[in-house]
Amino acid sequence: MWLCYPECTQFDAEGAREVAAKGRDSYNGRSASGVKRMSEERSAKLKPQHAPKAPHEDANFLESTPARPLRILAEYINPLAQLKREGIGDTIVMFGSARLDSHEVAAGRLTRLKDKKVSGLNKEEKAKHRAALRAAKSALEMSRYYEEARQLSHKITTWALSLGPRPRRFVVCSGGGPGIMEAANRGAYEAGGKSIGLSIELPHEQFANPYISPELSFNFHYFFMRKLWFAQIAKALIVFPGGFGTMDELWEMMTLLQTEKLAKNNMILIYGRKYWDDVLNWKAMVRWGTINEDEYKLLQFADNVDEAFDLVRAGMEKYHMDVDPFLQAY
Does residue 167 lie within any of the structural domains? Predict the structure, then answer.
């Protein structure tokens, strides 16, 4: 029920008289003809417009924070579809330092430094030259691991090719960058096989190495999605001398094996005891009780290409000749 107060009635009556006297149709000061003209002008200016881009075509949206789940999902679905398309059955992952050069490159650097005339250098420049010489000698010594990773990848790929093309078995997979990663892809390339590179967007590694099969070269923004694809279809991890990144992947795989998130028959092969025993005291963890003897035995060790290849082939033939249904199910 509406209540009408005398003051309201009086105000409305006076307002109506004012509108009638001034030829207005409302209290806003516009005449009826003015409102009509404005409406017509607006109608005349309206034209059909293009609809906005669909969300999946909108780069600003896709790069936004709310769209992060879509970007993460894309880093799962895209490799999945491409690996399936290329008939990949499983992988053997090879890790190691990005800073190691081939013997040819390392030897060339050392030769240039030795040939450089130092008689005209000042004291500070001579000190820098001596430091560069020491680093070059060390790099030449470490280049053996580049060459051995290259040879091992060649042997693994040659053997894997003999198992047939569909699915492709035990395909060499690397982190896509230089150093040991390049050596792994290079060995597979020289054996006539395909290999995978899982690159990551980093300030100092902007390019995938040239030996990756182009159709199996992937680039990731999210480290955890890259890690997933290292672990998901790998049957062996071969760990060459490396730094923080190599250790990160090593501990990740070891933890997944220890907690049985990966099959315990998957292999972790540590290559190069001289380096690794100097860097990590594996048995000390057993003595201190932070791991047990069975967990230590998850690791296998090799010091040369033939020894490593024999261990890998024996492990694959014993436990992994049946094709994992994961990539075959899509």
Answer: yes
